[in-house]
Design a protein that fits this description.
Elements (H helix, E strand, L loop, with lengths): L6 E6 L12 H20 L5 E8 L21 H13 L4 E4 L1 H11 L3 H11 L11 H11 L3
Parallel strand pairs: 1-2, 2-3
């Protein structure tokens, strides 16, 4: 891409990279790393004709979230939503795209609040229970066994 002076690298991150969730610390840390990497290489390659984008879906209805809880007032993404976001960012490059867009408004507001306020607002929405006490282990068993995750 550098010799051609054009290209586009799209990484799939997660909203968990900016909004931590109890019970999935390692996952959130790795997605935070994806965002940090994407943002840094974008800066390092500024003006070279290469775009760098991160797609940041919320919980996406795949086997990965089988048996986990659900935060109130937040809509899960569908795999098709993520695919549409990738296609959209190819057509019109953006640094970060939150999927679904409706979640982006709440996520942006939460990221700009004092941490204690943000965490307090998450409690009535149930965000702390999604991957902890709301997990249905029997529904999650197949995925957990295959991937070695809880």
């Amino acid at each position: 891409m550098l010799p051609r002076g054009k290209g586009h690298i799209i990484n799939i991150a997660s909203l968990g990279g900016v909004l931590p969730a109890e019970g999935i610390a390692t996952y959130c840390a790795t997605k935070h790393a994806v965002l940090g990497y994407t943002d840094t290489v974008r800066l390092e390659n500024r003006g070279r004709g290469i775009h760098f984008s991160a797609i940041m879906p919320t919980l996406t209805n795949t086997e990965m979230i089988a048996g986990v809880g659900h935060a109130r007032r937040f809509k899960n993404a569908e795999p098709e939503d993520v695919a549409q976001a990738v296609a959209g960012v190819i057509a019109k490059p953006k640094p970060r795209v939150i999927v679904p867009r409706s979640t982006g408004v709440a996520a942006s507001a939460q990221r700009h609040m004092p941490q204690r306020v943000s965490e307090a607002l998450g409690r009535p929405l149930g965000t702390g229970r999604v991957f902890t006490s709301d997990v249905e282990r029997d529904r999650r068993a197949s995925y957990a066994e295959r991937t070695g995750t809880p």
